[in-house]
Design goal:
By secondary structure, this protein is of the alpha+beta class. It contains 12 helices and 20 strands. Bound molecules: adenosine monophosphate.
């Protein structure tokens, strides 16, 4: 099998042929797939899905895994997703949709989300690369968030509509599914750590680490999530003429009243996916193939009976900024370690043969183990091999998080 990646990076170039096509250029991607006779395309990020790459490929007779543009609205519009959940009785936080900061303030002033000291969550409707959610601890912060969103921090379009949500309290868990539009297969549950600093302090990031472990989600809660969330979501998609084919990522808060959906993503999420996929024993390409042929129920999808962890190594300044061009030492040695996989997210090759940093989150050091402690020990052991000037990471990935109103995202 030959693997191509657009545009790829220096890490994936070790196993794939990278092609310099922009992921936002549907025409160029489809033309490349035709010319190179690509049998199957898998879409990584949300942008192309929201822009209709799946519809575009299918119209040209190309095989592709992912939701259509209409189904991708579960991620690309939080207002659509909330209304969808309401239509299909999927449990989620109470919400209101507003279109101006003033309207938002008057909703807050009604007291329906609590008094001026109560936490409340403010979200931009559209795609905002993780920067559109503010978990405000009181009314004043909520008003600031409304003004900030309207001042254009995430772009005017993404914040045309704004959601005000009840702040949920509990522990977060992510459940990802393969879905072929008819059947689904759940992956092991994962948890991520969003804040840059240890003990969940400091600003929010794209994710500083993740784990999978049996203790994250007990069987009865998992069954309840499948019954109360997954089944009605997929049935709802079907009923609305949007059969969901692709990866559905359900972000949940486990509250005292039961599981509540925080968000849907319509693709693999980073860094949960690193920790999940290192446990996949079956062939991922065969699963994708089965999904496009609506025969996922026959496909072999088996997981190792282990725990796993992914620790993200970031550049100095991240998340506010990111220093790039630093020489990474020890990477090849770390990558040789047993049961360890190092995923590259922002690396480049220097003029010689050395590895250089090329962005904020640089590497995802991922390992498996018979238990979480062993998986983490392998990650941190490998990290001891790696060094660059300005490298930072969290040393507390996998430690139980306090149940609470969670990090902003
Ligand atoms: P979202 O992109 O909607 O998942 O929000 C990103 C993060 O914000 C989530 O992972 C949670 O940590 C937090 N969050 C979102 N909505 C709520 C809510 N209603 N209550 C508490 N925390 C929330």
């Amino acid at each position: 099998m030959e693997l191509f990646c657009a545009p790829g990076n220096a890490g994936i170039e070790q196993i794939a042929r990278c092609v310099p096509v922009r992921v936002t250029d549907n025409d160029a991607l489809a033309a490349f797939a035709e010319e190179a006779k690509i049998d199957l395309t898998m879409v990584g990020p949300e942008g192309p899905l929201a822009a209709g790459i799946v519809d575009h490929f299918r119209n040209r007779g190309l095989r592709i895994v992912g939701p259509t543009q209409a189904a991708a609205r579960l991620e690309s519009s939080k207002a659509f997703a909330k209304d969808f959940m309401q239509r299909h009785a999927v449990p989620t936080a109470r919400y209101r949709i507003v279109s101006s900061a003033e309207e938002g303030v008057s909703v807050l002033n009604t007291g329906e989300f609590g008094d001026s000291q109560a936490p409340v969550v403010i979200k931009a409707d559209g795609l905002a690369a993780g920067k559109g959610v503010f978990v405000a601890t009181n009314r004043a912060e909520a008003v600031n968030a409304l003004n900030e969103l309207k001042s254009g921090v995430v772009g005017a379009e993404a914040a045309q509509r704004i959601l005000i949500e009840e702040a949920l309290i509990g522990r977060e868990v992510s459940l990802l599914l393969f879905s072929d539009g008819k059947d689904f297969q759940a992956m092991p549950a994962a948890r991520d750590h969003k804040r840059v600093g240890e003990n969940d302090t400091g600003p929010n990031t794209g994710g500083m680490g993740s784990i999978t472990d049996a203790t994250i989600l007990d069987d009865s809660t998992r069954d309840r999530i499948v019954r109360e969330v997954v089944a009605p979501t997929l049935q709802g998609c079907h009923a609305e003429g949007l059969p969901f084919q692709g990866i559905l990522f359900v972000g949940l808060m486990l509250t005292a009243e039961g599981p509540r959906v925080l968000e849907y993503n319509v693709r693999f999420g980073d860094p949960e996916t690193q920790a999940i996929l290192v446990r996949l024993k079956s062939d991922l390409a065969e699963i994708f193939q089965a999904m496009t042929e609506t025969r996922l129920s026959d496909a072999q999808v088996s997981w190792s009976d282990e725990s796993s962890a992914c620790v993200v190594l970031a550049s100095r300044g991240y998340p506010a900024s990111a220093e790039t061009g630093a020489t990474i030492r020890g990477l090849d040695r770390a990558a040789q370690r047993e049961r360890t996989t190092i995923f590259h997210s922002a690396t480049a090759r220097g003029a010689g043969t050395g590895w250089l940093t090329a962005g904020g989150r640089v590497l995802g050091v991922t390992a498996t183990g018979e238990n979480l402690g062993l998986a983490l020990a392998r990650c941190y052991g490998a990290i001891d091999d790696v060094h660059w000037d300005g490298m930072h990471y969290r040393r507390d990935i996998g430690r139980p998080v306090e149940a609470g109103v969670s990090a902003k995202g």
